[in-house]
Amino acid sequence: DCDVLEAFGQGESLLRDPGCAEELEDRLRFYAEECDFLQGFQVLCDLHSGFSGVGAKATELLHDEYSGKGILSWGLAPGRSDAARLESPPLPQDCQKNLYRVMNTALGIVRLSAHSSLLCPLSLSGSLGVR
User: Fold this and answer.
1) I need a surface site. Which of 54, 66, 82, 113 has the fewest CB within 10 A?
2) CA torsion, ordered 87, 93, 96, 97, to nearest 10 deg
3) Cα 35 to Cα 79: distance, rounded to the nearest angstrom
């Protein structure tokens, strides 16, 4: 519960690190070379946390490296919280976390859609899990 990747920028900066980006590229290249006929990629990405930044940067990398291939991105958001928690007044830290979730979701959708052939946000909640 240390909230290491709480914000979009934290996740995005993770793949700005040359060592981490190089390792991701090496692993992607390995799996791409193993394919007989690579048609595209599917990216599953959490929109609520800093992993939306990681997913956006990884999708950008895929788009640059494999420009002729399709990229289907699934933006995942949690379902509704339990009803008791929704009825109680929000605590200040809950408001801050909700603000981070809104910003992560918005930035994730914008950046993922810019580098994907198709972005499909998925949630069991009608509001993408944001209250």
Assistant:
1) 82
2) -70
3) 35
Encoded tokens for 94: 């809950």
pLDDT of residue 82: 44
What is the domain count for the chain? 1
**In this structure, is residue 129 part of a structural domain?**
no
Per-residue pLDDT tens for 18-57?
A: 899 899 999 999 999 999 999 999 999 999 888 999 999 9
CATH number reported for the structural domain that contains residue 101 in this entry: 3.40.50.1440
Confidence of residue 126 (pLDDT cuts 50, 70, 90): confident
d(CA 20, CA 49): 19
What local confidence, expressed as pLDDT, does residue 53 receive? Answer: 93
Residue 71 φ/ψ, nearest 5 degrees? -130, 110
Residues 60, 16 contacting (CB under 8 angstroms): no
Name the residue range of residue 39's domain: 8-123
